[in-house]
Amino acid sequence: MGRRRRRRQRLPQEPKEARVDALSHDGRGVARVEGKATFIHGALPGEKVLFRYTGRRKTHDEGEVVDVLEASTSRVSPRCPHFSLCGGCSLQHLDAGEQIHYKQQTLADAFTHIGKVEPESWLPPLVGESPWGYRRKARLGVKNVARKGRVLVGFRERSSSFVADMNSCEVLHPKVGHALEALSALIAGLSIANRVPQIEVAMDDARCVLIFRILEPLSEEDRERLRRFGRERDFIIYTQDGGPETVAPLDKEADLHYALPEFGLSLHFQPTDFTQVNSDINRRMLHRAVELLEPDKEDRVLDLFCGIGNFTLPLATRAGEVTGVEGAAELVARARENARLNDLRNVRFFTANLYESLEAEPWMKESFDKALLDPPRSGAFEILEHLPAMGVSRIVYVSCYPGTLGRDAGELVHKLGYRLVSAGVMDMFPHTAHVESIALFEKR
Fold first, then answer.
1. Which residues partner with 398 through β-bridges?
2. Residues 98-137: pLDDT tens digits?
3. Which candidate, 6, 4, 9, 34, places its Cα nearest to that of 19?
4. If we measure between CA atoms, which residue out of 153, 229, 158 comes closest to residue 196?
């Protein structure tokens, strides 16, 4: 007998009133309505709102604001006219200072509730010169929508796979954020307008690469149209007709690199390499990381999840020797080349999956004074137990997800003999609920 189809629950049509108590980890207002947790997009703590239901589940309900009956003093008007639809931002309606406070509280909650730890002191938050136009890496959706009579280019709609109907973006670097309509017109004029699902953006300090994902071959006329667009708007055009290995320049390869003036360095990267989206915060973050780790010419430093050497090379300008370890071989190759180009001879790089058994790795048999960890969202739990055995007395942990930092902090403090000396947030993604943070641990 076939599986029964689950009936879709009919949502209440009348708006409902709610008093909002808190903000969720993804920036939605949290209220209790008829005894049930309800997550409301566009609502802020302390507000009374009218909302309409957008989803109902056994454990919680979801909704969006229809009207604000009593506004929070922290409420501001979103700068972007597409904020209510686009999923790229979630906090434009919250004052910038309060966004930082919210992120600090999110980090504090992760330490308290997950790791059962608390930092001995809080670091002042790192904020950039401007919370607008900061984003230099992005993946934009593309969709030719016949009923709208145009090609949509932008982020996905909130809680949807549809591309948002938008003509500009205030968090993307203006070179791209103010070119969405031009990109729409460009793709509409291609012979494969229905077969371009995505544009990837990669910028350095001055240049901008656009990688067009194509599902069918370009005609020669298409290629010329892309070339002309690149010349007129100063974009470097790449295409991708398959997996990541098929990313290639339409004509000339881009030489992308960003400067780190404080350390006298310049780091080169490929358009598909992982780099931080916010170059201003990245420079401030590097300053703080080196300041906290306090490397000197006697120190041997271990940099785990090192990527292209974003932390490794600045550390190498201060330390006696730095060893970088990264799982992606292509990033390790780039890191080695960056060390060579910057004439740094006190740095080594190894390729290793840091989530698997590492006993055979040569660097695992060595001793280090200090370590820097910059893992992905999944955290660094698997490598932590090895740090005390290698003699690491000081750790700077850079995190993109408070949940795994909280978990790993608990392991370091309660099982591995470290103190959580200090911690703080870094506003890498203004107007979003994304929390980037940094923490310092010392051996007791």
1. 438
2. 999 999 999 999 999 999 999 999 999 999 999 999 999 9
3. 34
4. 153
The 10s digit of each residue's pLDDT in 209-262 is 999 999 999 999 999 999 999 999 999 999 999 999 999 999 999 999 999 999
Q: pTM of this prediction?
A: 0.94
370-373, strands of its sheet edge to edge: 121-122, 418-426, 436-443, 394-399, 370-373, 300-304, 321-326, 347-351
Active site annotation includes 169: no
Q: Tell me the mean pLDDT in the region 64-74.
A: 96
Dihedral sign (CA 314, 317, 322, 324): positive
How many other C-beta atoms lie within 10 A of the C-beta of residue 360?
Answer: 8
Between CA 401 and CA 134 the distance in angstroms is: 20
Could you give the CA distance from residue 331 to residue 329 in angstroms, rounded to a whole number?
A: 5
Structure tokens at 234: 């100063």
DSSP characters over 118-143: --SEEPPPB--S-SSS-B-EEEEEEE
The domains of the chain, with CATH numbers, are 16-75 (2.40.50.140), 101-129+256-443 (3.40.50.150), 137-203+208-249 (2.40.50.1070)
**How far are the Cα atoms of 28, 75, 106, 377, 395 from residue 70, in angstroms, in the given order?**
17, 10, 25, 37, 46
Q: Quickly tell me which residue has 């919370």 as its tokens.
A: 131
- Which residue's entry shows tokens 């739990």? 381
Single out the catalytic residue among 80, 86, 169, 400: 400
Q: Which two tokens stand for residue 299?
A: 């120190």
Q: What is the pLDDT of residues 72-94, one digit of tens each?
A: 999 999 999 999 899 999 999 99
Question: Per this entry, what is the length of the chain?
Answer: 444
